[in-house]
Amino acid sequence: MTGKLTSIRDVTQLEELLSEPTPGVVRTLANLPGDILILGVGGKMGPTLARMAKRASDQAGVKRRVIGVSRFSSSTLQSNLHSWGIETVPCDLLDPKSLASLPDAENVIFMAGMKFGSRGKEWTTWAINTFLPGLIAERYRNSRIAVFSTGNVYGLSPVSSGGSRENDDLSPSGEYAMSCVGRERIFEHFGRTNGTPMTLLRLNYASELRYGVLLDIAQRVNSGRPVSLSMGYLNTIWQADASAMSLQSLAVASSPPNIINITGPDLLSVRALAKEFGEILGKDVKFEGHESGDALLSDARKSHELFGAPQIQVRQIIEWIADWVKRNGTTFEKPTHFEERVGHF
């Protein structure tokens, strides 16, 4: 269905597409026992991932609870999740009593984390990204856990290398990336100690129409602002494909944790992307800075071998975003700061 669309009408249709399960997700959840608990469901990716889990379970004919946990500062989010058949539990995960009262579940997806605003609140960043994982790993020691991490843990790699692989040395830059290495190490410690099967999902730039690196570039081009070339190359993946791979990863969780890069197959030039948006939007493109020989890049061949290649290609995402920007579609108004080279978020 998505391949035939030249335009996404509105947020309702967008969320329908972002939560549409792939055949691989349906097969995985048909064979996966137990309920699914999503910790940090209130983020940009959480709601449609939860909905995908519910839709895939229904299509597979499996009765299971899909439960979303968040502080839920927005009552609208809770009502939306309920309308999709997802249970919600308001919770401050750092509060011991609240954490202890959460329901048990055989499958846990850990999406909680702090990135933006981490500079100046480094202590909170480390508490959420590194201390909390230990609490979660102990609380759900008898579950299988898919942990969202980030490609930032690798640091910059030569463009000529094609991107970092899962067994490469880590070289994080800045407190955010360092705290994310801490998150992985803490989960790995408890995964090994308790024998808890886990996956560590190093995601590089999930894109949709309201948020992501491609939207950032399109908005700059459309408004006539210069596009930064300080991070001259990138990877990205349609958010629905990222969600599908994340859910499928539960079936390959292991102890020690199975580390998996999640992104698209293409090494993308920021300059070329900006020019392409310029052509579609009918805008002249301005640039600032110049490309370096390294960038934050990941090689995701392992995830594509495990779960199949992404279903939505970058060209399709570009066309959808350009059309969305032309029509002044709703966005989260949260830049990704993808051009940041020293890890200050």
The largest pleated sheet is described as:
7 strands, parallel
Q: Provide the succession of SSEs.
A: HHEHEHEHEHEEHEEHEEEHEEHEEHH
Name of the CATH architecture:
3-Layer(aba) Sandwich
Class of secondary structure makeup: alpha/beta
Query: What's the CATH H-level homologous superfamily?
Result: NAD(P)-binding Rossmann-like Domain
As a percent range, the share of helical residues equals: 40-55%
Give the termini separation. Answer: 37 Å
What fraction strand? Answer: 5-15%
In DSSP terms (H or I, runs of 4 or more residues), the helix count works out at 12
Query: What Rg do the Cα atoms give?
Result: 19 Å
Count of discrete structural domains = 1
- Spans of at least 5 consecutive residues whose pLDDT stays below 50 are none
- Give the overall average pLDDT: 95
Strand order of the largest sheet: 3-2-1-4-5-7-12
Descriptive report:
This protein has about 350 residues and is α/β, with parallel strands linked by helices. The chain has a single domain, classed as NAD(P)-binding Rossmann-like Domain (Rossmann fold), CATH 3.40.50.720. The protein is about 40% helix and about 15% strand. The chain is built from twelve helices and 15 strands. The chain has a seven-stranded parallel beta sheet with strand order 3-2-1-4-5-7-12, sandwiched between helices. A two-stranded antiparallel sheet has the order 6-15. It has a two-stranded parallel ribbon with strand order 8-11. Helix 6 (about 120-140) runs parallel beside helix 7 (about 175-195) and helix 8 crosses helix 12 (about 315-325). It is globular.
